[in-house]
What we know:
CATH architecture of the largest domain: Sandwich
Oligomer: single chain
Radius of gyration: 29 Å
CATH topology of the largest domain: Jelly Rolls
Structural class: mainly beta
Number of helices: 4
Amino acid sequence: MKKLAILLIGVTLVFFACKKKTLDQPEITSFPSGNEWSVGRLLDSLASSGGAFQFNKASHKDAIVKGYVIADETGGNIYRTIYLRGEDGKCIAFYRPKGDDFQVKVGDHIGFKLYGSILGSYSGLPQVQIQDENYNSLFVIYEKDCTNNVQPRNVTLTSAQDDKYLCDLVKLRDVQFMPFDGNFYDPNNAQGNATSRSVVSCDELGQKLYARTSQYASFADTPLPDGNGSLIAILTKYVRSNGNVDWQLLIRTINDVNMNNDRCGGDGTRENPFTANDVITMGANDGSTFYWVKDYVVGYVNEDYEYVFSTENSVNTNIVLSSNIDAETSEECIPIQLPAGAIRNGLNLTDHPENYRQEVLLYGTLEKYFQVAGVKNVTYAEINGHSYGEEPIGEAIFIEPFDSGQGDFQIVDVNLGGLSYVWEFSSQYSCMKASAYSGHAYQTESWLISPAVSLSEVATAKLSFSHACKYETNPTEEMTVWLTSDFTGDVATTEWEQVEIAEYGSNFNFVNSGSIDLSDYVGGNVYVAFKYVSTSSNAATWEVRNVVIKE
């Protein structure tokens, strides 16, 4: 490939808040007349072209763009890319398909020769893709440390969701990460070798952005801060195939994160439970963790999926909470699923109209319910001086949500009846699913067995999980749970104990199993097995997720 050189002549430029760069080569001080492209012009050209185009015409040979580097690759979270804020204030990304790091850094005032590069976009993100392998020769550094020109734009969660801030450096104040006990990067919760963490604010109901951290980031193993404060990052977006947009933040280095103040809102503990506003702000979680939620009962969702703010003609399967006791719109509410049993019997407004406009404390999972952020799998509740369900005690010993695969569980097929498999991971419903129906029912037996869970350091232990089924005829025989302290690797030679499941969620409605006592296994190990059987005349479907063992 022919190497490109930048030949620039003219008068010396003076920029405030910059330091002159000491160069071995002669200092280059101006651009060829008539060939300078602003970043705004690049963006307009990209929009009008209807697609990518390459600077390879004769009229492009001296095409130049200049600006200030606002993000580089130093922190490892930005890959093969720098971000440039043009002198017109517009921003764009520069991407190289391969090679060593760019030699330009944050604060550099630079010029770049565009000839040979491709102007395009990636998932809605405007970028210049550099084709010349000698890409660093296309940059000219005029001055360094131009701090006044690389300050972040002050935005809110709402205002940031605008294309005018794409590729720009932004600052969010009074924000915090959605509660999570872990690091910025989680290999078990990663897509494309990166993990997205929700950034929320108590002041902007229902709004959030995603801070995306690469496994190569220098702060990948840093614990996620649990406080409130400010965050500086490059704003990007990812446009999904259905047209939905995830607005994303790329943190440059850990120095851009300053969250040492006390959190606003709740943290999901019994002492400081989430409010309805907290849940709305955070959005639906993956259902893998139980949290405490506390707020006012303001109504229910009827059979037509309408929010009703009274007790009239109420149903017994759900209630609605709000931080506003006088709520009149669904936007300020979260729906609560009432599982059959003690929780439903004690909380529903049909039998207990006195619960209306009373404060209730719940323990459940944050999941989508009626297509919005809500609470499901409620196992304990307190209202009007009464308690329902079993109060959770102690820390989790083992959790497997089945949100990204089968985890460390193993599948043991005793009889596939001609099928290739019975148990499989369902990415659509984030669960493990067993079914022996493929055109017709097959006679099968298949087990889903946990790894050994040590109970040697605890005095008590209890098991619970969420599950749903359909097409069952006798669920207590078709879908069962078994325990053992010593799995031999062969289900036939292992000594098993069957335990009772309190409730089966028919018609694919997930319900909680209830608390299953593991006292007989304290002091040693326990294996938990989900056994599925079917006949040639009937094959149920069984879905299991959120397997939890707690003290």
